[in-house]
Amino acid sequence: MGDIIRQAAVRQKDGHIDEYDYVESAGAWSPDSKRFAFSGVRNGDNVLIIKEVLTGKTVDEFFMEGVPAFQNPAWSPDGKTIVVSGLVNGQTDLYLLNLRTKK
Fold it and tell me: Which residues of 29-42 are buried (b: 16+ CB within 10 A; e: fewer)?
């Protein structure tokens, strides 16, 4: 077994620390291996979290408007887009998130 170097998320009661109810999916490494994206749930809403691997700092968080449930993020080869599997009105589909425009 290997050693734990850094945890992606920790449930804390400190308001200054990111608090996630739970991690929803295994997540995905960015093409350059510098960032890690995973979906979680905060206050009952799905959130896509992107962490900087070396520091553990949260780089960005996205609540995907119109897509209440999503998981299994995957990076595009150029690292500019993330695709997730989302569920809307009982229908599963793929949804793209442009990291530059945040849409």
Answer: ebeeeebbbbbbeb
- As separate numbers, helices (DSSP H) first and strands (DSSP E) second, the chain gives 0, 8
Strand partners, 98: 81
> For 26-75, what is each residue's pLDDT tens digit?
799 999 999 999 998 888 888 999 999 999 999 999 999 899 999 999 99
Centroid of chain to Cα 1: 26
Q: Does residue 94 sit within a domain?
A: yes
Longest CA–CA separation in the chain, Å: 42
pLDDT value of residue 20: 54
What is the Cα–Cα distance from 91 to 69, expressed in whole angstroms?
11
Query: What's the domain range around 54?
Result: 22-98
